[in-house]
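Form 7-S
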Amino acid sequence: MRDEEIRHILMAAKNIVIVGLSPDETKVSNNVAKFLQSKGYKIFPVYPKENEILNCKVYRNLEQILDKIDIVVMFRKGEFADELLKSIIKKDIKTLWLQLDIVNESAKLKAEQSGINFIQNRCIKIEWQRLFDKKSN
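Output:
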């Protein structure tokens, strides 16, 4: 995906689900979520345990979230993207983002066929900094 497309996705987004958001402050998912909060995004953690992470209510799955979601960021093994994509299609979410080192080519194909933006093997925090914090680089 081209930089202009990613920039547009990030500028238009308000609500971001983070699947696999760990409550552990030493984990990358927690660091990325804090960064996104600091940039004004509303975070929706999806995690199998905990009731609250980073002062946000924790959900067990996408179906429990009633707010409109703009981006789903996945911090799970690549195979999980196939299952997650079914919920994304049902909820009419426009972007699925697989974090750095997470890849799923079959999910990419299905997402593109369904008109969903699909970004993989990229960190949303690094991309945000690269595209919007150019002066600080």
